[in-house]
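Please fill in the sequence for the structure shown.

STRUCTURE ENCODING:
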């Protein structure tokens, strides 16, 4: 889908506040409500808008630790990678999971309440996934920047 300037403005506004009413969104992007709604529906249908969510403050929800965990697998076969990806997706603590370049290591980010919760996650959940060779953890001491809005082009 080719995105024009109006589409990009719509996306920028919705990335900052997904709860905007169509009337308010149309006002902000200088478009009447009906064509604005048509464009939003087209962006949704094309998969450009994936979903709408509420962003919960992790600390307010009692999730004090952000931990990055590097995981190496014993085997690098398609089946081994697929099984790991399927199993890791089952855990709510896992916020993100990336297959990294190089030795087919994975990098995951988990959100947990405390060290005890991290230990339980690693010992009871992570190590139960077959094929894991190495697990290395790094703690985030401070969140310097966190954003969810993608850097959209300024014009199409």
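FILLED IN BY: designer on duty
SEQUENCE:
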């Amino acid at each position: 889908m080719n995105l024009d300037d109006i589409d990009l403005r719509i996306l920028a506004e919705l990335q900052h506040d997904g709860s905007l009413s169509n009337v308010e969104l149309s006002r902000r992007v200088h478009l009447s409500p009906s064509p604005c709604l048509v464009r939003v529906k087209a962006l949704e249908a094309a998969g450009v808008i994936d979903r709408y969510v509420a962003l919960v403050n992790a600390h307010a929800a009692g999730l004090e630790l952000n931990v990055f965990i590097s995981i190496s697998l014993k085997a690098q076969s398609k089946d081994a990678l697929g099984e790991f990806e399927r199993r890791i997706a089952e855990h709510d603590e896992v916020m993100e999971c990336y297959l990294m370049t190089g030795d087919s290591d994975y990098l995951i980010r988990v959100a947990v309440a405390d060290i005890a919760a991290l230990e339980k996650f690693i010992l009871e959940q992570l190590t139960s996934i077959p094929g894991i060779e190495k697990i290395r953890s790094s703690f985030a001491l401070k969140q310097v920047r966190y954003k969810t809005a993608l850097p959209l082009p300024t014009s199409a």
